[in-house]
Amino acid sequence: MYPLPQHFHLEQEQLQAAGVREWASLARLQDEALRQLARQGASEQRLTRLRGQARLMEALALDAGDAALLLHAGIATATALAECSPERLQVQLTRLERALRPGALARIDRDTVRGWILRARKASSRSPN
Fold first, then answer.
1. pTM
2. Confidence at residue 18, expressed as pLDDT on a 0 to 100 scale
3. Do residues 7 and 34 both lie within one domain?
4. What was the pLDDT predicted at 107?
5. Which residues, 6 or more positions from 95, have their beta carbon under 8 angstroms from its beta carbon?
6. How many domains does the chain have?
7. Are residues 44 and 69 in the same domain?
8. What angle (nearest 5°) sits at the alpha carbon of residue 64, between those of residues 5 and 82?
9. Which of 45, 53, 107, 122 is the one with CA 20 to 30 A from 31?
10. What pLDDT is attached to residue 126?
11. Predicted pLDDT at 101
């Protein structure tokens, strides 16, 4: 799970102090546990975002970067991803990648997005059609 980006240093410190060292452990944290960590100096909003990232990773076997990209695109759950059109999401993610990493080649292709959506539909028990 570690290291997290520098702007998450307080959250990383609080998670480590609480014994949360893996994405799977973070995915299982309840709201009250996040609030308690926030009272100790971490940002509840950032902790919630990290937990959402962890939950996407766990539900869909995504890596941390891909889960973060989906969150930035407004896709916070497997159910939300299952409802996406592969073509529209691929265009959206390509634009987002270009905005976040100017000059870099887009690394997410349509087949990758289609695979994520199929896994999300399976995870949320939605028909693949």
1. 0.87
2. 94
3. yes
4. 83
5. none
6. 2
7. no
8. 135
9. 122
10. 59
11. 82
Q: Which two tokens stand for residue 58?
A: 């766990």
Q: Tell whether the model's pLDDT for residue 31 goes beyond 90.
A: yes
If DSSP codes are grouped into helix, strand and coil, which group holds residue 107? coil
* Residue 53 and residue 105 in one domain: no
Report how far residue 99's alpha carbon sits from residue 55's, in angstroms, rounded to the nearest whole number.
25
**Structural domain range at position 94:** 63-129
Reference 55, options 11, 25, 17; nearest CA is 25
Q: Are residues 53 and 75 in the same domain?
A: no
How far apart, in whole angstroms, are the C-alpha atoms of residue 51 and residue 27? 5
How many other CB atoms are there within 10 angstroms of residue 107's CB atom? 13
Same domain, residue pair 46 and 69: no
Listing DSSP states for 60-94 in one string gives: HT--HHHHHHHHHTT--SHHHHHTS-HHHHHHHHH
